[in-house]
Amino acid sequence: MFTDTHAHLDFPDYAADLDAVLERAQAAGISRIITISTSVEGSARAVALAEAHPQIRAAVGVHPCYVDDSPSDIIAPLRALARHPAVVAIGETGLDYHRSATAPEEAVALAGWQANRKRQALFFEQQLQLALETRLNVVVHQRDSWDDTLAILRPYSGRLKAVFHCFGGNLAQAHSLLDLGFCVSFTGIVTFKNAATVQETAAKLPAGSFFLETDCPFLAPIPHRGKRCEPAHTRLTAECIANLRGESVEELAAHTNAAVDAFFRRA
Questions:
Q1: Are 245 and 202 in contact (CB under 8 A)?
Q2: Which of 26, 102, 139, 195 holds its CA 20 to 30 A away from the CA of 52?
């Protein structure tokens, strides 16, 4: 019934019980899972998972928090992996300034954060170019970097689509993305008691402009908050959003899956 559009099934959190995790997802009505990559090595693991399990598809990419641990040439191996028929997107890629944004100004200079930000931007641009080359859309990670992320993405509006995953912004920010031809995705955060802003956004966005995701093993929804998240929990997020929108779960499933079909190539 539903698609978990952002899971990290290659993480060691699932090494011991992946088959059981997938069985619970199927029992909860999660018919498709897109496992998202954070590194070149993780991209290869994601493709292997998609080869082994018919309900899994893969996105390949390098997360901004992994750029300093990545080789200078990430594009050659990602390009080779992107040719696999189970690969449906590039990502996750983007900008993450959280650690530098919360550090004192003098510490930013000493820690080399400016160099890190430049490397993040370089890798982001390279992966956007790869997306154009492969005709795949992009899964975007944005944290404390809104203006710079949009500045890099704007020239690609109309040339490719991007989904801002784990969206936690307000309705105006979401509409600014929709105006560029982009979309957003909601996690279990929407079920949290202190999530009024994202709840309003999920309630008021037009059908077809957003997806559902877990970002598992992170961000488990209520009542599992603080525990390991897994794809089956997509159902809880869906039920919460359907209630916020005054829709049936079936209606929500229909328009989110249609949006997934349009965005994730070969999904």
A1: yes
A2: 139
Q: What is the dihedral of CA 21, 25, 31, 35, to 10 degrees?
A: -50
Check if the beta carbon of residue 33 is closer than 8 Å to that of residue 267: no
Q: Where are the beta strands (DSSP E) in 64-221?
A: 87-96, 138-143, 162-164, 183-186, 210-212
Average pLDDT of the segment spanning 114-141: 96
Helix (H) or strand (E) holding 152: helix 146-153
Confidence bin at 59 (pLDDT 50/70/90):
very high
Could you give the C-alpha distances from 135 to 153, 163, 230, in angstroms and in order?
16, 15, 29
Query: Which CATH topology does 2-263 take?
Result: TIM Barrel (3.20.20)
111 confidence band (pLDDT: 50, 70, 90):
low
Q: Write out the two tokens for 203.
A: 């309630």
pTM comes to 0.94
Report the distance separating Cα 196 and Cα 155, nearest Å: 32
